[in-house]
């Protein structure tokens, strides 16, 4: 069970609101100081224990303390920790990029390695505008993205992010235009998301026409929308987006930072939902959490613009640590484990077990959505527990997530939803424990259910 952490009061400041995120300095006395971890369990500095039902934040798919990845990183650290990036790359980076492309569906045929998800979204945005410019359409600069989509914290990726709070930073990228998702429309119209799919497509097409199709460079989407509580796309929606983009000459970008690398039970959500984008961003789990790593995968359609000297020279300036040998070693070792464990088959098997467990845990207290080992639950409001329900520091989702944390279970909750993403190496017993702890938290916050 978790416990309060005692830290030096001189280095902490209780005036800081850490309910949303932690700051390193100053920090609140409530900040959890994680100390060590093994498998799917963490320990804090005060000896509190946590079961990780979120893989860190969709990252530690192979668990903590993975010897193959830690050994590969250690060996690389001793042999070549860094290489002059303006003068060459490393064997590991080349091998990793090659293997990532092999894992991805055709026609994704090129990979650019970066350090994190936001950087990979930035690279996709730059490539999208470059692509049209090089092909003689410099007027295509607008980028469509979804309300409620999350794409990162740098200015370009933030401009794609459809949360109202991003407007606090002032104007973002010129040409950022929002569209509605099927789930948002379903809420508005009372339809089921499956029924709202065609309506959302029709509305997006109207937006494209109203914004002038010849001014639009790209459409960026998360295949499964995290901040709507893992809104799984209705059948036909992503293939419908593919057709729309083709009709209007727009590049389709999938942000698979969360859904990529086996999370949905296939290598990419592009495989699961049968629509292949022109640019695909992948990150989080691809290093298993052992080094910062992400990539943008580039289709055969876009790749040729990088073959021309001036364009590739323009795109070349990268991040100092992009494609660094340590991250490449972590990524290659993670890919080795991906194949060894047969992740798609394993995720599909574990997902069947966990879905059944969650269904019986919910007992009418929520609506479950899943894609592989990625889960979202929209909570059905019950009587909120005194002082910890809706209106007390957030919605029902936060209340349930906090009740889980008090029991030593890490999940995420906001608004009326919670999300879970157990590690690929979880055992059936781990999943049973996650479901039991979640059930106890639901009992506390929502009452017993039916
Ligand atoms: C869908 C999605 N895109 C992009 C990002 C940004 O990735 P990073 O935090 O690695 O920059 C995230 C991070 O949570 C994400 O969930």
From TrEMBL:
Keyword Transferase tagged: yes
GO molecular function: pyridoxal phosphate binding; transaminase activity
InterPro entries recorded: Aminotrans_3, Aminotrans_3_PPA_site, PyrdxlP-dep_Trfase, PyrdxlP-dep_Trfase_major, PyrdxlP-dep_Trfase_small
Keyword Lipid biosynthesis assigned: no
Residues of the signal peptide: none
One matching Pfam family: Aminotran_3
Entry-linked PROSITE patterns: AA_TRANSFER_CLASS_3
Keywords of the record: Aminotransferase, Pyridoxal phosphate, Transferase
CDD domains named among the record's database cross-references: OAT_like
Coiled coil: none
Family: Belongs to the class-III pyridoxal-phosphate-dependent aminotransferase family.
Protein name listed in UniProt: Aspartate aminotransferase family protein
Lineage summary: Bacteria, Bacillati, Actinomycetota, Actinomycetes, Kitasatosporales
